[in-house]
Batch of 2 targets.
Target 1
Amino acid sequence: MINHHPDENLLAEYASGSLAWALSLSVCAHVQLCPHCRQKVSNLNKIGGAMLNTSVAETCAPNSFENLMRRIHEKSSVEKVSEVAATSELHISYRHDPLLNKLPKVVEKLLPANGKLKWQKVSSKLKTARLTAGQNEYEVAFQCISSGGKVVEHDHRGLEITLVLKGSFSDEQGVYSEGDFLVRNPGEIHRPTATLNADCLCLSVVAAPVSVTGLLGHFINPFLSIKPA
Amino acid sequence: MASIISVVPSAARDDTWSRLLERVGQQRDESAFAQLFAHFAPLIKGFCLGNVNSSFPADAADEIVQEVLFKVWQKAPSYDATKAAASTWIYTVMRNCRIDVMRRNRRTISDSGVIEIEDIWDEAADDQAYIYLQQASNETLIQNALLQLPAEQRLVLSQVYMQGKTHQQISAETGLPLGTVKSRVRIGLKKMQLLMDVGNKRSEKVVGEGQ
């Protein structure tokens, strides 16, 4: 059961298309896991449709339609109208990885097509894999905490969104499981711990470098420096 | 072209537009497309100009209209009238065009990205099947709800949707605190939601009784 959702404001920014690319990606991944939010986004889109229907009609430039039809005919004579892109099959190495199979569609798209996802060990219990998301404002990455593993206490200088994809973890404020969508604002400190029975995979989208508090942080920080991809 | 507008009685428009769009998609019907164009092009332009103090140049709006309807033609084969009304679907196509334009202008793209707009904002993401009857009553209901909203909530929603602004941008431009912008959006949406829920239940009942 999903207990943590993006709030109405975030969903509205997503549905109206103003939310930053990487944040939208994380909202989309949640929406693909959450029927409740899917319904909400569907309603928000309907409001968009109603906005369109009730907007004040403005006369278009003369010959707009003729110009458009000319463009359409030219285009279709040069190249065939693009068919729906063939759904590329998930690489076999992901399909057999219990951590990486059955992810939301949009997250599967983030996996390198060659089947080689590069994990970096941050500590004995935490590994991270940077993901290429076609933008440079946020760092998008997988974070994987081994079962029972604790992550070094850290705070955030910028907004961080965490979406639980597999397993569950807890911090001082609660337990989060598959599909839970968490927003951490700058200055919030937390120390996530994976639950004992399984590894926990999260998608994280971070605006600014995460700073590690405490002694260990001194050694770990270089790994966490922001590197947008 | 002018005569086309009068062919379609506006009272029946929800079903009419969805069926026309289906014909465009399935039969590549250009006369159906002409009717859609005559109806939606001026609305799309009006939407782009944003209703409120917009400094958006009219010729830029005309270009967007062309781009949106070009995409509508291209994507129409994937349109499914049982899932979304034409106006909602065209809204999502229009929104995606705007995302594309803004993204290119902002130069925040890194070349290596494989994710495309449709992966994040899927026009067909709505997996619920609606029947025409329910859809039509929904549409009317939402429009009425929108028109009934208090002015300040309606204004903020149009800034969100029509001008495509983040809450932060609206706050910076209007001088309203971010919290106020957020709560106005939330209250506005909540009111709309309540009216929609009522409508959903009512039309479910109607559908149930009709069977």
Target 2
Amino acid sequence: MMPTASQLRLRTILFWAVPLLLLALPLSTNSYVQFIANSIVIFSLVALGFNFVIGNLGQLAFANTALFGLGAYGSAILVNTFGLPWILSIPLAGLAGAAGGFLASAAALRGIRLYYLAIITLAFGELMRWLYVHGKSVTGGTDGMGVPAQSIFGVSLTDDHAKFYVFLVVAVLLFKSTLNLLRSRIGRSVMAVRENEVATASLGIPTARIIVFAFMWSGFVVGCAGALFALHTSYVFPESFGMLHLIVSFAMVLVGGLGSVIGSVLGAAALTILPEYLRSFPGMEELFFGLIVIAVLLALPDGLASLLRKLSPIFVERYYRE
Amino acid sequence: MLMQLTISGISQGAIYALIALSLTVVYRSTTIVNFGHGDFVMAGAFLSYVLVVLLGVAFIPAAMLAVVAMFLLGLAFSRGLIRPIRGGPHIGFALMCISAGYVFRGIARIVWGREVLPMPRVFEIEPIFIGDLIITGDAVFIISITAIMLVVFFGVLALTDIGKMVQAVYQSARGAQLIGINVDRFNDFTWGIGAALGAIGGILIAPISLLHPDLGASFLIKGFAAMTLGGFGSLYGAVLGALILGLSEQYAGAYINSALIDITAYLVIVLVLFLRPHGLFGRKTVVKV
Amino acid sequence: MTNLLEVEGLDVRFSGLHALRDVSLTLMPGQIMAVIGPNGAGKTTLFNAISGYVRPSAGSVRLRGHDVARLSPHSIAEHGIRRTFQNGGLFPALTVLENVLTGLHAQTEGSIIDVILGRKQALASEREMITNARALLALMQMEHMADTRAGDLSGGQQRIVEIVRTVASEPPVLLLDEPAVGLSPLARDQMMDIINRMAGEKGVGILLIEHAVELVMAGADRIMVMAAGQRIAEGTPAEIREDRAVLEAYLGHA
């Protein structure tokens, strides 16, 4: 059930209209709700980046959390040590994430796949965390690093409401870029590798390079999200990028729908709002997220996005642009 | 000094061997890598802690109970959570395993909070003195139990009917099915064995290390490093890789830098996968595209 | 006329097994050569060696004079040798149109940056490829299936789509591994139609592994017979029919 031409036009309108409407959000919320909204925007990006590798490319990746941390620390270091305005640190954090993505997946260029690739990304992720903890002089070690108050063009960014505007713009840009990629020969080749790598190679497509690219794009998106996160929490420390974050990312992607862009938003929204009540009790979050992933795997493996698709063809994704 | 480090290395390697072996056993028959295995190991250790410390059961019976309980848990996991998602993508299995691990971890953390728990000395084994060399009671215990388990395991595999059946399934699940082996039940059984073996590893390390819910993560990496070094899917490779890992950690830690003990496993993984991906005994699995 | 594809002395060994022994063949543009032989004769291994999935221990594979023998599969495909797979190589989660578009990957213009920024040049090229793909599907009377998930098609339809995807870029050389297996007579005719069109109109050189004798005898310009990793005969269908070595390989006696 593919969307018709008019539904496609509606989809484009909605894609831009929704963020425009959201611009009015900060005018009506209190700080607490705004903070949650900001979290949702940031985690939508995390889910988007993560989904690109595990959903669209179909490779298990454990390095994402580390790349998120790389972006956050990268931004914090650039701001603190080099005095760079935070806003400029965003693309640089993205590049750091992309570089990390390259390192994590370079083994793919030598033919490594699946479980081995998963393990190497796991090792890479843990190595990065070890660095955050032990690189005290640069990263502040377990104490972490603060991010000082920021402003752009004289407008102060200490308020969650102000931060939202920047987060929203960055998110819209990254989401649009990702959609452009998916709806092109590049996105198709990424998914082709997932479906059948051998056949993909027979079409003249350099599959190893595609895998590395997917990791790099994912790293870029997640790295930018890391920079946003650094300002969001005003503080960066290793614990935020540990194993809990990993299962949360998995849960978001799975609940939203593997490989679905809108699923990334749904999953992030669902799993940012719900656990608010669990934060106080140690262990509850892990138990909760673990159970959620299990439940989704058993009952709704295609995630919330699959429900949306049943609702209207407008949500069915076409991976080409006519 | 070298001999002392070697003893420590073998002792550590013994634990890693159990973990790597239990991972390999499951991987061989189901082609699933249990990314939550570290937490299964931790669960075994915590179960024994509960029995010994909170319920006052003596160590040996507690250990046996914990192992049996983990065996049943592994079986139930396979039956209830793995089988239903069989048709799906491989990523689904990985996520299921990881999530189960997180459930264990969450429960452990809820029950024990932020504490890091010492397991009381179980029994006093006299250390053995050979010249300057001190072999601690713990090392004696760990190495001998592991050695016995390995002998039993490989012995059963090679000599008994059940072992032959296992080898048959390893060679070809399809073929095994054709000659009447119920591969589903076999896989459940395998998960149980994997969980039980892992639990033994956890229980052996419990008395000499502090227990905390995040114990699993480091165990997982060590297990993977051992499997990668020995060659994924090779049972002997898993044991050999584990021993080499244990020794490398001790030597590197003493002769180069003590910080290396933590990250030797990661370095092994990265090095082996870049230089010789199929490890020592694994089959070539590099994709040619 | 220069040889399109020249395979010379191709030799493949797998730990102990001598899978291909000194196999040679020549293919002209527009020529259809069928490769036949009993199971285990090494036909698919030959294809794998030519297309780069298996490394030959000796020999050369010259495409228009250029030896591609030891390149990676995707490089060989880029040079112009395309193939289908015995077990089918479609992308089940993508639609029929998206599958065919992947066959046109190399022709589609636009770098990563162009795509991300939505530059006109990239979008125009994409639209052009979509038009071409739809036209191809229309030729096969499959345009109504363009938006169907490839995995939802019947086996026979999947095979046809796989062929369409493979020929979309009009490669100079095509290796078809048992394309007609499991196809209904109607689909089989469609298949032969594509093959003949490619060879006749586009000058594509086609190597075809096929078991259906009538198809081979009627459709091929030349036949190469293999057994036990070796080429035991090569010639026109008429010549092969009379060849004693062939009869012996198939029937065990002269």
